[in-house]
Write a structure and sequence with these properties.
CATH class of the largest domain: Mainly Beta
Oligomer: single chain
Distance between the termini: 22 Å
Largest sheet: 8 strands, antiparallel
Keywords: Signal
Radius of gyration: 18 Å
CATH topology of the largest domain: Barwin-like endoglucanases
Structural class: mainly beta
Strand order of the largest sheet: 13-12-9-10-11-8-7-14
InterPro entries: Expansin_CBD_sf (IPR036749), Expansin_CellWall (IPR051477), RlpA-like_sf (IPR036908)
Shape: elongated
Protein name: Expansin-like EG45 domain-containing protein
Number of domains: 2
Length: 232
């Protein structure tokens, strides 16, 4: 519930000030808790001007913050050699365990601690669609990553074709969705019929054509709608 309340207050710029709300640097790298290693970053992460960050742990909510977008206003006030300043957008690819709520750690080489204000927004996905990636999956086990969504995915359900019901997946600590403890029909049939839920309550359904690990997979080309009541 705390996570949903956070997401649904997109239009409130709650996290301001210095030094508790800061922008820092942790260097460039291909890894990150959210497991978006280049060159397989989602299309939205490659938007011109988009910067990559680690989000503070309190707002990451385990790994539900992976793939979110934030608008940043930075005044350049602070200390160090490389000021953060201007208005721009960032994409969350990692977690900053030691950062306070409202703070960001930039995946760039730099120095200093700089005042920032952040606002969660709908990601500027344009005409691009939601993507998927499996890890360690097969006909009897699923570990699924949802990628490139306009709004965060807060729930994933998988349709069970014989019993005509939905089974919920559970969130992992590394940015994926796992088979829950329900009664799953096995072997898992493809295409996999999934239902994705956004924090504003929108549900969309898609079909994942195959189980293939460690590659980006496209479904039928679905995306959450632009919500006029939330910033973008």
């Amino acid at each position: 519930m705390a996570y949903l309340e956070f997401i649904l207050t997109y239009n409130r710029r709650s996290f301001t000030g210095f030094p508790c709300r800061t922008g820092t640097y942790y260097g460039t790298g291909t890894g990150g808790m959210c497991q978006f290693p280049p060159p397989d970053l989602p299309p939205v992460a490659k938007t011109p001007g988009m910067r990559l960050v680690a989000l503070n742990a309190p707002q990451m909510h385990a790994s539900l913050g992976c793939g979110m977008c934030f608008k940043v206003h930075a005044s350049g006030k602070g200390s160090g050699a490389n000021p953060i300043h201007g208005d721009f957008m960032v994409f969350v690819k990692d977690v900053c365990p030691e950062c306070h709520a409202g703070s960001l750690d930039f995946a760039e080489n730099g120095d200093g601690r700089w005042a920032v204000e952040i606002q969660a927004v709908q990601c500027p996905v344009g005409n691009t669609k939601i993507e998927y990636k499996f890890q360690g999956s097969h006909q009897y086990y699923l570990k699924l990553q949802t990628r490139n969504s306009r709004l965060p995915v807060t729930e994933v359900s998988v349709f069970q074709p014989h019993s005509k019901r939905w089974e919920h997946m559970k969130r992992s600590g590394d940015g994926f969705w796992l088979m829950g403890d329900g009664t799953w029909e096995k072997p898992i049939q493809t295409p996999i019929h999934v239902r994705l839920t956004a924090p504003n309550g929108e549900n969309i359904e898609d079909h994942i054509p195959k189980i293939q690990n460690d590659v980006v997979i496209h479904g039928n080309g679905v995306q959450f709608s632009l919500d006029a009541h939330l910033p973008h």
